[in-house]
């Protein structure tokens, strides 16, 4: 009986200790997580480091060598609302997720499609935009082509940017065609202009811009995009505070119309074309 009483006393003592210690421990862990979040680091640093890559009209250089475009406006607005400066870190698309994971920058704001394979490596915000794949083709090489089936042949060459959703779309919709991969999207379009590829697949509306710019050589074989994909910011996994902040920022700027206004300017007008190199 005496032994049982001692055991109960010990159990009660342990329970009391845990009842005080666990909340304190949990609070300490939460404080550490918050202090280590990307948002907190950005606020302390005073700079939001943004990983991006050039895609017309998402991000490109103007005649003075300054970055302009839809994504550039978005990233600058995020930084402004945080009370910090935006620092853009151009990165090859194929290596942009590894660069985020190794801390080269804080977030990817670069027209990145939200797809499950990427989501295994990074967390995505809610979509702040939607895009889709379209195609621009060479007038001579692809003469008479008007469907995906026309391009899905062994003697057809499709040029795409490596690591992009365009590359995935080319493999999925045109598995029989030759797929040529390039580090930079501009190289893919140059290959098309040189007559070494039948078509380039890219996020709308970039292919349409190239067709309008070079009507003597290029045309749009499809009347609309053949995929639809949500676009989000990408952040490192395990950082719920940063993800929550970006999600709130997106909802706020969707509701007040700012994102819609910027998209209209960059995707539905050509007012910016004179600024580009």
Automatic annotation (TrEMBL):
Q: What is its main location?
A: other
Domain Solute-binding protein family 3/N-terminal: from-to ranges:
47-270
**UniProt xrefs under InterPro entries:** Iontro_rcpt_C, SBP_3_CS, Solute-binding_3/MltF_N
Q: Which PROSITE patterns match?
A: SBP_BACTERIAL_3
Q: Which UniProt keywords apply?
A: Signal
What protein family is recorded? Belongs to the bacterial solute-binding protein 3 family.
Name listed for the protein in its UniProt record: Amino acid ABC transporter substrate-binding pro tein
Q: Could you tell me which species this protein originates from? A: Desulfonema ishimotonii
Q: What is the lineage of its organism?
A: Bacteria, Pseudomonadati, Thermodesulfobacteriota, Desulfobacteria, Desulfobacterales
